[in-house]
Amino acid sequence: MKWFTLLLIVTSFIFAEEKTLVEELGYPKETRVLIVNADDFGMCHAQNLGTQRAFESQSITSATLMMTCPWVLEAIHYVKKNKITSVGVHITLNSEWKRYRWGPLKRKNETLIDKDGKLWRRSHEVELYANTEHIKNEVHAQIQYAVDLGISPTHFDSHMGSLYGIYTGRSELVAIAFSNAYEFGIPYRIPYLKALKPFRDMGFVMIDNLILDKAPDNEKRKQHYVDIINSLPYGVSELYIHPAVRNSELRRVTNSSRKRQADLDIFAEPWFKKAIKDNNIVLISYEPLRKLQRKKMKWRSGLKAQDVYEEYRKLIVTSRDLRTQWKEYIGSNMPAWIIFASDVFAIFYRLGWSPHNPDSVVTLLYIVGVFVVLFILCLLIQWICMFFHKPHKSLGKIKTTSRINLTIGLFGAVIALFFGIKLVIVPVCIAILSGLLGRRFIQNSVKKG
């Protein structure tokens, strides 16, 4: 009987299901939990006004601060005065607007800035040009600055997604994020993906669902949010919005002033609280997630990100599926052009193209060399084809058909460069094939002539 009981215990342990995040938070498995986060807190005065009103109307459950922006001090003053505890850090590596821009906290991080001395405008520019050490320094500095100003961050996220590595697959960016989550004992906002399982096994807390920003900038915006609330899946989800007051300042700062005012107005309306109640949704901030993560990881002050960064980087590199899973995740939530652009940028990053990469000149010369060879090859194929068929009246077609060949050949060159120099035969074969197609094109032109 004793052995049977022991066997039963062991069997139940082996086949026991791993607890979901909502269960770890103390809710039944089939519970819908939602965090409504206000991004860009501290960006400008109008953004601060909107976020403050959203807190007061209970439209949001948390907010994240842009520590690089001048108006963040006003935001922090409001947080401390009103004893708001559900505030995190909006890691900012981009400065996207035309008339109002900001730089990094660490001025020595020169690869983080453009020719104007401000942070890069676009996320892919950060991924392509920024030095890893400079990113590490800046991310840490922004969280530390919030702590130094008296904020106890509940979590941190990434402005414009620059820490996700979506565009180039820079795995070390995610490692940088998790190493800082380790040091400060706070969750990093990223949806759980299978490639991140090693980090979840360590005790890092990740939300189940991140609702990406694709709300239309028109009268359908409200219905979009209504549909999200009514179809919220089980688990812990985050919906991030950008509530702001559309005054003269905001109109001059951003071209999204109307959307930001709409976010403020829509979530302050009665429908939101009613929809939350009707769908049995539990609203929380990141505070319970921070508490859970610190408990699971047995967090203590004094930990250092630099002590675990290399270990985390190797874990991410080993898990090669991260970028693929990211693409699958955002594929149903993002426009096709973003997915296509990410593939293009990934190719450049794979090639090592960056003005701060010492190998970039060699890489560039190699690319140019392959393209020149392909161009000459295409021309030779055309001349050979024309020599045998002697379509003298069609000599003017050489330029057109060569362009066709060159386009196809360049496409093959990109494929070859992406997969390695051994596959340089690929563009050669494509160029030959295009030459034959060009021959057919000329033959048809002669017949018609």
From TrEMBL:
<dbReference type="GO" id="GO:0005975">
    <property type="term" value="P:carbohydrate metabolic process"/>
</dbReference>
<keyword id="KW-0812">Transmembrane</keyword>
<dbReference type="GO" id="GO:0046872">
    <property type="term" value="F:metal ion binding"/>
</dbReference>
<keyword id="KW-0460">Magnesium</keyword>
<keyword id="KW-0119">Carbohydrate metabolism</keyword>
<dbReference type="GO" id="GO:0016787">
    <property type="term" value="F:hydrolase activity"/>
</dbReference>
<dbReference type="InterPro" id="IPR011330">
    <property type="entry name" value="Glyco_hydro/deAcase_b/a-brl"/>
</dbReference>
<keyword id="KW-0472">Membrane</keyword>
<dbReference type="InterPro" id="IPR006879">
    <property type="entry name" value="YdjC-like"/>
</dbReference>
<keyword id="KW-0378">Hydrolase</keyword>
<keyword id="KW-1133">Transmembrane helix</keyword>
<dbReference type="Pfam" id="PF04794">
    <property type="entry name" value="YdjC"/>
</dbReference>
<protein>
    <submittedName>
        <fullName>Carbohydrate deacetylase</fullName>
    </submittedName>
</protein>
<feature type="transmembrane region" description="Helical">
    <location>
        <begin position="334"/>
        <end position="352"/>
    </location>
</feature>
<dbReference type="GO" id="GO:0019213">
    <property type="term" value="F:deacetylase activity"/>
</dbReference>
<feature type="transmembrane region" description="Helical">
    <location>
        <begin position="409"/>
        <end position="438"/>
    </location>
</feature>
<feature type="transmembrane region" description="Helical">
    <location>
        <begin position="364"/>
        <end position="389"/>
    </location>
</feature>
<keyword id="KW-0479">Metal-binding</keyword>
